[in-house]
Amino acid sequence: MNIPAFLYFFNLLWASPSVVLSRGVNRHNVAQFKVNSLPGISSLPTSWAGRLPVPGAKKGNEIFFWLFESEKPAYDDNLIIWFNGGPGCSSLIGLATGNGPFSFDGNSTNLVRNPHSWTQLGNVLYVDQPVGTGLSTASDPYPVRDNGQVTTDFASWLVGFLDRFPHLKSKQIHLMGESYAGIYIPYIASQLVKNSSVPLNIASMSLGDGSWGNGAAMSSVATGRYIRSKSALLDIPEEILSVFAEADETCGFNGVLAESAVYPPKGKFVIPGNPEFFNLKRRRRDLTNALNAACDIGPTTPEEVRTSIFNSTCYGPCATFSTAMDYMTTKSANSSTHGCYDVYDISHDCSSISALPLLAGYFSRADVQAALHAPNSGPYSACNSTILGTLLAAESPVPPAYFILPNLVTEHNISLHLFSGEWDMLINHLGSELSLQNMTWRGAQGFSKPPNQLFYADNAAPSVTKNSQPAPATTLAAATATLKAAGTWAEERGVSYHLFREAGHSTFVNKPREMFSYVRDVVVAPRAG
Ligand SMILES: *[C@@H]1O[C@H](CO)[C@@H](O)[C@H](O)[C@H]1NC(C)=O
Ligand SMILES: *[C@@H]1O[C@H](CO)[C@@H](O)[C@H](O)[C@H]1NC(C)=O
Ligand SMILES: *[C@@H]1O[C@H](CO)[C@@H](O)[C@H](O)[C@H]1NC(C)=O
Ligand SMILES: *[C@@H]1O[C@H](CO)[C@@H](O)[C@H](O)[C@H]1NC(C)=O
Ligand SMILES: *[C@@H]1O[C@H](CO)[C@@H](O)[C@H](O)[C@H]1NC(C)=O
Ligand SMILES: *[C@@H]1O[C@H](CO)[C@@H](O)[C@H](O)[C@H]1NC(C)=O
Ligand SMILES: *[C@@H]1O[C@H](CO)[C@@H](O)[C@H](O)[C@H]1NC(C)=O
Asked: Please, one GO biological process term (predicted)?
């Protein structure tokens, strides 16, 4: 069916009160949520947005959603649910910075269509959770105390949401997210599969630069190795790198990394001591400096770096991660050539655009909030420090890598897709690879071979995707991008890992085309068991 004919057909459906179904959506039931137009952009895929209450919660606790209909009927069987992390960051970040139907035009709040929108690969649901995040609302005082409540709130909210959009109940559900969503998603999935009164088909989980492993493994243990591998980009002098090398030896990190470099691994990797108190409690150095800015001593010399790593009474012992962050922040504040250090993407400099103020500018507008059926939400901020502080200060959830992810993959046959951007220093890829090698699923630990197969801009799973040939390239630049490897990957026993080259914490920001292929070829593609 050609597009004008399709639109005509669609309009006819609208005009006829007796016919309410289009691809399964009961449009009467959800008409109040239909997004009829959005300021600043003339064409948008069909979508519904608004807030729905968390069942059983106090009045005022409502989760904001924005659901897009699949633009391609061939992919209509998928429901992708996207989560940003934080905790306390809005999923509109992912929507507007490279995975959704529009993005900002440079450093302005003018909107442009994103040709790599995942809405071409399924129905896509964006959610601002926990309550109080983004355009969601919360009662006062802030009611969410810990990750357990985040999990049960969202699971019961989703059930209520699916009652409104019942045609989605039978879809293949793909939970995707980044950063702290590495905790949200596995916990939410395990809550949903527990509940047999709500049979859902959770097909996959994708965790990008996610915090799903042991806190120390994902930070301190691999920090020294990471900054050495990226020392040119980070511009760290050898005399400083050698202090980190000394710490990696003294703290036993080299031993852990050596064990993880053996394929297949010989047993669980024991992290000596309790670096930065991460084993005991996630006491991650807070990026907004709200929790423990007082720990920062601004080290610049090797001696100061050594003191910060070994003798900080505040970071805890063997604090390579916190020290590296403090060192880089201090150095860039004083540098004319390497200013504006960005832990989320170490390739950034002062000319890089920050999308968060743009999001705040756009989604705070009264006309935008009204269009999204979230009127009078007041000033929107992409991340909420109250929620971040509350949840990070709470009891740390058990790392999903220990039991939750293995159980979901092994017992529930849910595919797990892990991915990293090489330029992310917050959750660096070496720490993710280490944590993956320490995980046991379907009867074995880790991968049996290093994840070093190549994948490409238009083919994210070359050895398994038979019918996903690279699209014919129309320009020389496109042809070159197609041939250049986008990164390295592997897949074993229902778990895949992709390392994206030249990408930061949010891989799709630098690599929207590659991530589009990834979602198509890895996430929503039918997998072999
Ligand atoms: C963060 O969330 C809390 C709890 O809902 C709310 O009181 C506060 O206004 C929010 N802060 C921002 C900056 O949005
Ligand atoms: C299962 O879901 C139903 C519907 O949301 C809910 O009432 C019930 O409490 C849930 N049970 C569990 C164990 O989560
Ligand atoms: C490996 O997993 C075990 C639990 O199975 C945990 O005790 C240990 O700290 C983990 N090591 C790393 C490096 O993640
Ligand atoms: C760190 O403190 C220990 C004692 O707790 C001391 O022996 C050591 O010399 C100190 N190291 C540095 C670099 O200050
Ligand atoms: C930054 O540079 C100034 C001038 O060279 C110096 O006085 C100051 O100590 C430096 N600050 C840091 C944190 O290195
Ligand atoms: C983007 O615009 C803001 C506000 O006008 C400005 O402060 C910022 O420096 C700009 N960023 C870049 C990279 O030009
Ligand atoms: C597991 O899921 C895959 C698709 O992801 C499917 O091909 C396979 O048949 C499933 N196996 C079982 C035992 O359900």
From this structure: proteolysis
Q: Which residues of 89-121 are buried (b: 16+ CB within 10 A; e: fewer)?
A: bbbbbbbbbbbbbbbbeeeebebeebebbbbbb
Domain tally for the chain? 2
Which ligand is the nearest neighbour of the Cα of 333? 5
How does residue 389 score in pLDDT terms, banded at 50, 70 and 90?
confident
Three-state DSSP at 368 gives helix
DSSP lists the bridge partners of residue 204 as: 174, 415
What does each C-alpha distance from 237 to 39, 43, 145, 301, 495 come to in angstroms? 49, 51, 43, 10, 38
Q: Give the number of whichever ligand sits closest to the CA of residue 280.
A: 3
Q: HSE of 99 in the Cβ direction (CA atoms, 13 Å)? A: 29
Quote helix, strand, coil % in the chain, to nearest 5: 35, 15, 45
Predicted confidence band of residue 15 (pLDDT cuts 50, 70, 90) = very low
Which of 386, 388, 390 for mutating ligand 1's site (highest number of atoms within 8 Å of CB)? 386
Kindly indicate the confidence band of residue 478, based on its pLDDT and cuts at 50, 70 and 90: low
CA separation for the pair 170, 371 (Å, rounded): 29
Does residue 88 sit within a domain?
no
The pairing of beta strand 25-26 with beta strand 21-22: antiparallel
Asked if residue 360 lies in contact with residue 381, where contact means CB atoms within 8 angstroms, the answer is yes
Question: Tens digit of pLDDT for each residue in 56-104?
Answer: 999 999 999 999 999 999 999 999 999 999 999 999 999 999 999 999 9
Position 2 in a domain:
yes
**CA-to-CA separations, 510 to 209, 351, 423, 497, 502, in angstroms, rounded:** 14, 15, 10, 19, 7
pLDDT digits (tens, 9 = 90+) for 262-310: 999 999 999 999 888 775 444 444 444 444 566 788 999 999 999 999 9
In DSSP terms, which residues pair with 102 in a beta bridge?
113
Evaluate whether residue 246 is within a structural domain. Answer: yes
Q: Which domain holds residue 9?
A: 1-33
Distance 419 CA to ligand 7 centre (A): 22
User: Quick check: is 126 in a domain?
Assistant: no
Catalytic site positions? 179, 424, 505
Residue 199: CB partners within 8 Å, gap ≥ 6? none
Which residue CA neighbors atom 1 of ligand 4 most closely?
A: 311
